Amino acid sequence: MNAGLVAVNIAIGTTDMIILVLYLLGVVLFGSWIGGRQKDLSDYLLGGKTLPWWAILGSIVATETSTVTFLSVPGIAFAPGGNLQFLQLPLGYIVGRFLVIMFLLPLYFRGEIYSAYEVFKKRFGGTTERVSSLTFIIMRTLADGLRLYLTALVLEKVVGIPLPLCVVVIGIGTIIYTCLGGMKSVVWNDCLQFVIYIAGAVFAFAVIINELPEGWSSYQQFAAANHKFTMFDFDWNFAKSYTFWAGLVGGMFLSMATHGADQLMIQRYLGAKNQKDAARALGFSGFLVFAQFALFLLLGVALAAFYATFPPVTPFEKPDEVFASFIIDHLPVGVKGLTLAAVFAAAMSTLSSSLSSTTSALVNDFYLPLTSTHKQQSELVRLSRVFTALFGCAQIAVGIASQSISSSVVGNVLAIAGISTGLILGIFFLATFSKQASQASALLGFVIGLTVVLYVAFAMKQEIAWPWYTLIGATTVFTVGILGSYFLPQSQTLIEE
Predict the structure, then answer these.
(1) Residue 205: which pLDDT band, with cuts at 50, 70 and 90?
(2) Which reaction does this enzyme catalyse, per its entry (predicted)?
(3) pTM, whole model, 2 decimals?
(4) 449/45: higher pLDDT
């Protein structure tokens, strides 16, 4: 995740440009139409709780697939020595999601809630709810503003217009259909965008195989000779990111955090017709993400075989550049535009979901509890649209400001965004498994957990790889919260059974 991700010389023809522009306009129009009219907050923030499980499944997968994922995961397998070991991580994702279904998902279907952090209000009190929600809002806005910047880098190279204007164009397009269509627009657009970017990856893979001298045989021979199909590494070295143990344990905790303690995903479950449908979507999403990553990695192996056969004129500075370069240089007219549309599909699905989830957290965790006046549902919907637009503007501001941030800082900030969900997961563990933990002990655990995980991430990053950060944060919060409950005031509230 760095600014060099798409630092390639890109230019496209008129046909592909028209396709790209029509796609961006189509997304806005489709999202505005499919969302329909929203009469109340349930319609706007949860799609009226009428969303089918398979649409939620597509939305979950599309939301966790950003432009960075679409372009950089192939680079992992492309790189010298690269292989399929990244797939050890989604193995942990599958396990983590089933643990969420067993232990955390039931919390969200006890009563009428709109925000994940309302659970904390019922169990601990309003302060814990607002601290957790504010952490989510800040880190989500910052991280997705940076993702917007990375996506705008692609548009800048394609169209040749200034980077700030690219940030504004993508940001405003996403704001419009999210504001007008609400959560229903976000979910259905996610499904459409999932199909587009998967189709783009499959077609690119097919083009590469067709270009190799002996087709599939050349691909297999290259992969075997360079050990590209190696998947498992059982080394206990905690500094290595892609080992079986880092994938299984670290990936499990990471998935529990991102899919069990993050409003971005929880908002989708709450839009399901019932808990059973939410569980079905979440359970299948782990297997679908595994298959998706396998496709991206196999595509990376194909890119390595292609460029070993047809070396580029100028060597690539970073593996992340390779797929973007191939799209521009080797895909046929028309398909090139559609595949570039897939790049923006991956980005806009994540950004729109971010706008909807941060709005939901702000309205339900801050505005409604702190206002003393009763608002009509139609007025709350209008207010939510205003908050959506403001969060969109905040993302645009972060995206523009990111021009002055070094690539290493960008990577660190995105890493911290992932770390924060581990802290919140620790509070969920306290809410689920400890009856005596109080608001005071939960907040103490949060503060100490934040201190510990930041130290590990920055001072020990050479010794401990990032997949372990969520585990460290969650276990620290939980352990300190349990210990603190023995000498701090006990909680006066419990989650309703």
Answers:
(1) very high
(2) iodide(out) + 2 Na(+)(out) = iodide(in) + 2 Na(+)(in)
(3) 0.82
(4) 449
